Amino acid sequence: MLTAIVLIDADAAKIPEVAAAIADLAGVSEVYSVTGEVDLIAMVRVREHDDLADVIADKVSKIDGVIRTQTYIAFRTYSQHDLEQAFALGLED
Questions:
Q1: Strand order, beta sheet including 2-10
Q2: What distance in Å separates the CA atoms of residue 19 and residue 79, rounded to the nearest whole number?
Q3: What are the structural domains of the chain?
Q4: CA distances (Å), 52 to each of 57, 86, 88, 91, in order?
Q5: Residue 82: is its pLDDT beyond 90?
Q6: Residue ranges of the Transcription regulator AsnC/Lrp ligand binding domain (predicted)?
Q7: Of 14 and 87, which is predicted with more confidence?
Q8: Please, which residues bridge with residue 41 across strands?
Q9: What is the C-alpha separation between 38 and 50, in angstroms, rounded?
Q10: pTM of the predicted model as reported, rounded to 2 decimal places
Q11: DSSP codes joined into one string, 14-58
């Protein structure tokens, strides 16, 4: 599974509509409206590398109101759940 974090600049008047349209796309697991230098952050999770282009370049970027995207592909995922399993010694509390 490949994960991409997509930073999205959107037309300010269309942010809720843009976010909803992106969230409806296959391959998009979450869309966050955020503060800061971008308007939205989308999490894209796909099985194949070529699927990233299908979702991001062919669909997300073409949604009315999307001005610009910047994509980061994740190499490795860390989470509290993963860390707890990695350091568990199998001992009861």
A1: 28-33, 40-46, 2-10, 66-73
A2: 25
A3: 2-87 (3.30.70.920)
A4: 8, 30, 35, 41
A5: no
A6: 6-77
A7: 14
A8: 7, 32
A9: 25
A10: 0.83
A11: GHHHHHHHHHTSTTEEEEEE-SSS-SEEEEEEESSHHHHIIIIIT
Whole-Å CA distances, 47 to 4, 13, 66: 11, 33, 25
- What's 61's DSSP letter? G
Least confident of 18-22, 24-28, 82-86: 82-86
Mean pLDDT of the chain: 90
Cβ pair 43, 56 in contact under 8 A: no
